[in-house]
Amino acid sequence: MAASLLRLHFHDCFVNGCDGSVLLDDTATFQGEKTAPPNLNSLRGFEVIDAIKSDLESVCPETVSCADVLAIAARDSVFLTGGPSWEVQMGRKDGVSASKAAATASLPGPNSTVAVLLANFQNVGLSLNDVVALSGAHTIGKARCSSFSSRISGGAGGGPDINLDFVQSLQQLCSSPDLSTTATTAAVAELDNQYYTNLLSGEGLLPSDQALAGQDQETRMIVETYVEDSDRFFEDFKASMVRMGSLVGVVGNTGEIRRNCRFVN
């Protein structure tokens, strides 16, 4: 569940800022973000946010926004899986709409090259270092076979140093026609620097993961730094999470603090 809550926060902030828009259900007036291709059958943890919000509303009605709940849940999930903690900046407002089209256009896909990843991140004001640092969240994640099918068929993203044993293990795991089977993105269930070690050995699960160690010399140097210095990874991850969590969402009087995270007030 930790990976799911962290992913929810990412996918919220990359679409019009951190405004809780990813939590909204579809209505008669808009198609929300839950059914956008990057999110459909992928995002989980909505019921956890619902439960937290319900408890908060019972003691402090309309005080803590759903966007703030997401940010706090993501931070606590990281800490409870062995990662660092940081001070979450509060005061976000919840959006009163959501956009399937914006989510489709804004969120990087699993087959993204480094250039595409960088463009997605720069579009919201984040840097190449943020790309590599925040990708470390995949150390506690899982992915469906359908999202790394190109790794299975040809080892995309691995370059000449592709790990054939790893690719064969993925082929065996995903041999069933049911591509909803999942694989872990790292060998452990704790947030640490193992993800980066895996990249250097050609064991990045998603093509966009392996691309960080195989397509661009600058990103590979950052990967190597995190392999050698886990404290540096933690510090950079914390800083990147604060920057991402500060992405401007709802401004002024255009937002609200929802009573129910699935619907506007």
Automatic annotation (TrEMBL):
Taxonomic superkingdom: Eukaryota
Site (Transition state stabilizer) residue list: 7
Catalytic reaction list: 2 a phenolic donor + H2O2 = 2 a phenolic radical donor + 2 H2O
Top-tier EC class: oxidoreductase
PROSITE patterns according to UniProt: PEROXIDASE_1 (PS00435), PEROXIDASE_2 (PS00436), PEROXIDASE_4 (PS50873)
GO terms of molecular function: heme binding; lactoperoxidase activity; metal ion binding
Keyword field: Calcium, Disulfide bond, Heme, Iron, Metal-binding, Oxidoreductase, Peroxidase
Binding positions for substrate per the UniProt entry: 108
BP term (GO), one: response to oxidative stress
EC id: 1.11.1.7
Amino acids binding heme b: 138
Annotated SUPFAM superfamilies: Heme-dependent peroxidases
Cofactor(s) listed: heme b; Ca(2+)
List of catalytic residues: 11 (proton acceptor)
Residues annotated for Ca(2+) 2 binding in this entry: 139, 192
Domain Plant heme peroxidase family profile: 1-265
Cofactor info, note text: Binds 1 heme b (iron(II)-protoporphyrin IX) group per subunit. Binds 2 calcium ions per subunit.
Name by which UniProt lists this protein: peroxidase
